[in-house]
Specification:
With 401 residues, this protein is α+β, with helices and mostly antiparallel strands. It has five domains: 4-80, no CATH class; 86-166, no CATH class; 172-250, no CATH class; 262-337, no CATH class; 343-401, no CATH class. The protein contains twelve helices and 16 strands. It has a four-stranded mixed β-sheet, with no helix packed on it. Strand 5 (124-130) and strand 6 form a beta hairpin. The protein is elongated. The termini are far apart.
Length: 401
């Protein structure tokens, strides 16, 4: 393998590609089958100047790049090339399956330094540590474009691989919680994995592949241990965000009655509360297009679930969460504790006023008509326990409780 590309980087030169048989500017395939089939030449003073014959196209291109003509052509090309915006650099990195490595520095990226005093139009410098030396890769208008240059280098790719190997995979629940923390949506889909942009890869240690379509082409984002972690990767991409925004815009808000019906269909409880909104986990923010805010308390923090047009739709969103289900269970338990006490079986109630509900097997013995009474009157209720009759047709014993 030719070492010319590495030597060009060391000398801060560019092997300019071209649409010809050799693939490089100033390089020509003149003698196929010969030990040195590639000729390097430049146009100087109106005449072609031959620079030599070489074994590889890259070696010939390096010879061209060292000449004044080669340097001038590269400077002209670099000046004409429009700098990438931050978003364009991210998209290009995705297209090339590269990672812009974040770092805790002023530029925010590994291998990128911010130097506004040295080059105002292009204040971001890309550099790597190579062979014990600090190698300068170029100056760029945005930190992301500089990070892309670093990501293309062997050092950048090695650093990305090292980080990926060290990162612990997220569990399914961990990925869901991270999505909520970043206010992202794991887009569901009717496929074998259950998520948009996620495909199964059985037999691998990380059997879920994340991918999106960008510019008419499939862009692979990585492989993951769980479908939810892969869906989180998709949700973070510009394409995933666009799909989520489109779905949210297309989804019509539920009316109060529709939300109640949906709760019944899912066997959920919209837990009522003594608040302006009237439901557990729902706050009213008047004056907004969607004035009802759904939120729960999770892990010591308030987690925002979304804004909704009706209180019932917000309550439905809360009811679907683990916190909402737990609140429904507590409400059901409290309601059960407030139920009236049971009456013993085979007992009769002697009614003097209003009769409470009775269990099956009890009967009421009325003695006359009870007159109307004032609200503060005392109502006496006698419970008569009647045992089985004896042989003479009379009860063996009757006891009043």
């Amino acid at each position: 393998m030719s070492c010319s590309p590495q030597q060009a980087q060391a000398e801060k030169l560019t092997l300019r590609v071209a649409d010809n048989k050799a693939g490089y500017f100033g390089v020509y395939l003149n003698k196929p089958g010969q030990p040195k089939p590639f000729q390097a030449r430049v146009w100087r003073g109106g005449k072609p100047v031959r620079l030599g014959m070489f074994a590889t196209a890259e070696e010939a291109a390096l010879c061209v790049a060292r000449t004044p003509e080669g340097r001038a052509a590269e400077a002209e090309r670099a000046a004409a090339a429009a700098p990438l915006t931050s978003e364009e650099a991210r998209q290009q990195a995705q297209a090339e399956k590269l990672t812009l490595l974040a770092a805790d520095n002023s530029a925010g990226y590994f291998g990128v330094t911010h130097q506004p005093s040295r080059s105002k139009p292009k204040p971001y410098q890309a550099r790597v540590w190579r062979g014990g030396k600090d190698v300068h890769l170029g100056m760029f208008a945005t930190a992301e474009e500089a990070a892309l240059c670093v990501a293309r280098s062997p050092e950048g790719q090695a650093a990305a691989a090292e980080r990926a190997a060290a990162a612990a995979p997220l569990t399914s629940e961990g990925a869901r919680q991270q999505a909520q923390a970043e206010k992202l949506t794991l887009l569901v889909a009717k496929n074998t994995t259950g998520y948009f942009g996620v495909n199964p890869k059985p037999g691998l240690s990380k059997p879920y592949q994340a991918r999106v379509k960008h510019g008419g082409k499939l862009v692979y984002l990585g492989v993951f241990a769980t479908a939810e972690e892969a869906a989180l990767c998709v949700a973070r991409s510009p394409e995933g965000r666009a799909v989520a925004a489109g779905r949210a815009a297309a989804a019509a808000p539920l009316t109060s009655e529709e939300a109640r019906q949906q709760a019944q269909a899912e066997k959920l409880t919209l837990v009522v509360a003594k608040s302006k909104a009237g439901y557990f986990g729902v706050n009213l923010k008047p004056g907004q297009p969607k004035p009802y805010k759904a939120q729960v308390w999770r892990g010591g923090k308030t987690v925002h679930l979304g804004n909704f047009a009706t209180a019932e739709e917000a309550a439905l969103r809360v009811a679907r969460t683990p916190e909402g289900r737990a609140a429904a269970g507590r409400a059901a338990a409290e309601e059960g504790q407030g139920a009236p006490p049971a009456v013993p079986s085979r007992a009769s109630l002697k009614k003097e006023g209003t009769v409470p509900p009775m269990p099956p097997g009890a009967f009421v013995k009325e003695e006359g008509v009870v007159p109307l009474m004032p609200p503060d009157a005392f109502v006496k209720v006698e419970v008569v326990v009647k045992e089985e009759e004896g042989s003479g047709g009379q009860p063996k014993r009757q006891r009043t409780l």
